[in-house]
Amino acid sequence: MNDELLLRYSRQILLPEIDVSGQERLQSAHVLIIGMGGLGAPVTLYLAAAGVGHLTLVDFDSVDLTNLQRQVIHTTASIGQLKVESARQAALALNPHIKVQVIQEKLAYPQLLEAVSSNDVVVDCSDNFPTRFAINRACKTAGKPLVSGAVIRFEGQISTYDFRTPDTACYHCLYGEDGENEDTCSTTGILAPVAGIIGSMQATETLKLLLDLPTLSGRLLLLDARLMQWQEMRLRKDPACPVCGQQA
Fold first, then answer.
1. What is the CATH number of the domain that holds 179?
2. pLDDT digits (tens, 9 = 90+) for 113-158
3. Alpha-carbon Rg for the chain in angstroms
4. 245 in any annotated domain
5. Cα angle value 215/173/144 (rounded, 5°)
6. Is residue 239 in some structural domain?
7. Which domain covers residue 61, as residue numbers?
């Protein structure tokens, strides 16, 4: 690590839990971020700023005017551009010392599993249940840790599923695939900073996974930003879960 990088990351290196050795671990890490919207924006920016050496960004959508209220990695000049390309440019503008790869298509499961398998941590910033279930299954199959977040209205939630540990509950243990109808930000709205809160926490969990620090594994945090209250739930493995249960 040269003098420029030591200076760039100096405030992070000062932390005894990180130091130079931890920063070097971050530089050699590979992280897959799926979704370049309200959650993917802060995740990508903070991981780039923190010096995670290899980021792979996945999204098939283009930037729309309605995105700019919360998807802070994009700008007005980005409207009409592919989100992954807009995000790649922003991440490299912030930190030109990292590598950013983009996948500008919706991945079928075999391609998703391949992408998951080639990364150290997967961050789910998607906005729909089918994608979240597919990511969860791929991470469980590949034994890769998953940081999952979701936001809507004034509400947010986050958990980490560390599939390096066999007894870890999975996303499917929490939500059955026959769950309730899904609301979206486009139909019910969202307070912009709520995405920033949860996305920043996802970035924090990702860095802690890469540094072998304690994470939210086994716990789910629920945010009510209207009242600014947090709730915590313990997650337990469902023996009947078709993804991670005994019958899986």
1. 3.40.50.720
2. 999 999 999 999 998 989 999 999 999 999 999 999 999 999 999 9
3. 17
4. no
5. 45
6. no
7. 3-234
Count of domains observed in the chain: 1
State the number of CA atoms in the 13 A half-sphere of 6 facing the CB: 5
Please write the tens of the pLDDT for every residue from 34-57. 999 999 999 999 999 999 999 999
In a domain, 31, yes or no: yes
Whether 28 is covered by a domain: the verdict is yes
* Phi/psi of residue 209, nearest 5 degrees: -60, -45
Which H or E element spans position 6?
A: helix 3-8
Whether the CB-CB separation of 127 and 58 falls below 8 Å is answered with no
User: How many C-beta atoms surround the C-beta of residue 24 within 10 A?
Assistant: 17
pLDDT at 177: 65
Q: What is the DSSP string of 63-121?
A: --GGGGGT-TT--GGGTTSBHHHHHHHHHHHH-TTSEEEEE-SPPPHHHHHHHHHTSSE
**Alpha-carbon dihedral angle through residues 75, 88, 129, 226, given to the nearest 10 degrees:** -40
* pLDDT of res. 187: 75
Q: Which two tokens stand for residue 98?
A: 């990292």
